[in-house]
Design a protein that fits this description.
single chain; 381 residues; mainly alpha; Glutathione S-transferase Yfyf (Class Pi), Chain A, domain 2; 2 domains
């Protein structure tokens, strides 16, 4: 019967091999690209057509998309700027429909999407016939047009001008930092990363991001030639991308960006440290969760994912920021915005479906055949 343990080991090896195959088929991870999503431009053409594959956004089970709102968000779950808008929508209790843009197939550069946003960037919000690009502009639009009744303001108007000015100040201070630049810089200079990278920024994804970064300008020029209507904008974007890439290759330049980030967190830590006594549980600027908190939350999440939390707040570096991040992860808007590990695995599983089916069949056949040979060996020994 000594053959049986050997057979079990073989099954285990098959299982491990399958897991590795699913994990390291790099082409299935390119949908995670989170680059080039700031400062959107747009065209005024209607987008009533070619908007298929609408899927429900990640909301609580009790919440259903309300098409009467007319809000449709084009975004990607792992996009730094998309996440700001998704969190704002949840904070404002706005129901919306979600159209996920497949970056694997460069869907953001397909002709139909370039008619919506000629820069080929997400997020973009459609409100009936209105098209609003750029996360900052979208959030301002939501604030201006959906702030009554059960839809709370992200910049309170009833707490005085000082509070409003503080919120605007911190929002601008935080949004001055580009999450995508920090992400790419950490990949180009991994020696500055002292923490552990988290999903989605695991090994294969990081490799894909670096490949995309290196070829981004060339790809943009190719897309520009194929889309004359957006050619000038895309060529300008390609030139800017090339300049940004060259700058980020210089470690000294990236260290300057990290220093600016440190200075920002110094101000945030100082502000949070003043929240004592009756205002201990305040958010960044007031007792209400504001647009400044959304900017801070998404930045903290990205820095944590790329392994820079130890530099900026973890392990007592900035204890008030550390506690703030712990608290904010308990908010429903955070849970409904940031994809979980399960969501990541589920997405990979779905994208790998043909491979999984094929390899699974092969594995079953291998197990049956292997088992038969073991049985034969036992019977005829």
């Amino acid at each position: 019967m000594w053959h049986v343990p050997i057979f079990r080991a073989s099954v285990q090896q098959i299982s491990q091999t399958l897991s590795l195959i699913f994990l390291f088929r790099k082409r299935h991870f390119s949908w995670l690209l989170v680059l080039n999503q700031a400062n959107c431009a747009f065209s005024s053409e209607s987008v009533q057509k070619n908007t298929g594959n609408i899927v429900p956004t990640m909301v609580e089970e009790s919440v259903k998309p309300n098409i009467n709102h007319g809000l449709l968000l084009y975004h990607n779950q792992y996009s730094f700027y998309s996440q700001k808008v998704v969190m704002a929508l949840h904070e404002k209790n706005l129901l919306f429909e979600s159209r996920l843009i497949d970056l694997t197939k460069s869907e953001q550069y397909e002709h139909w999407f370039l008619q919506i946003n000629s820069r080929g960037e997400v997020p973009v919000l459609q409100d009936s016939s209105k098209i609003i690009p750029d996360s900052g502009r979208i959030i301002d639009y939501l604030e201006d047009n959906f702030s009554n009744g059960d839809t709370p303001r992200l910049i309170p108007m009833d707490q005085g001008p000082q509070v409003r000015q503080k919120i605007i100040y911190f929002r601008n201070l935080i949004e001055n930092l580009n999450g995508n630049v920090l992400t790419v810089g950490s990949l180009l200079h991994p020696e500055v990363v002292t923490g552990s990278r988290k999903i989605p920024f695991i090994g294969p994804v990081c490799n894909q991001l670096l490949n995309a970064e290196n070829s981004s300008a060339a790809n943009l020029r190719k897309v520009a030639e194929e889309n004359p209507e957006s050619k000038d904008i895309l060529l300008e974007k390609a030139a800017n991308q090339e300049a940004k890439h060259e700058k980020l290759l210089n470690k000294d330049e990236f260290m300057k960006i990290l220093m600016v980030t440190d200075n920002m967190f110094d101000e945030v830590e100082k502000e949070l440290s003043q929240h004592t006594g009756d205002i201990k549980n305040w958010w960044l600027c007031t007792d209400r969760f504001t647009v400044a908190d959304i900017a801070l939350t998404i930045l903290l999440e990205r820095l944590n994912q790329i392994g820079l939390e130890n530099r900026f707040w973890a392990n007592g570096v900035r204890p008030h920021v550390e506690e703030y991040y712990r608290r904010v992860q308990e908010r429903e808007s955070y849970k409904n915005t940031i994809p979980t590990t399960f969501m990541f695995i589920k997405t990979v599983f779905i994208s790998q479906a043909p491979l999984i089916i094929g390899v699974s069949i092969a594995a079953v056949v291998a197990v049956i055949v292997g088992g038969w040979f073991v049985v034969k060996k036992i019977i005829y020994k």
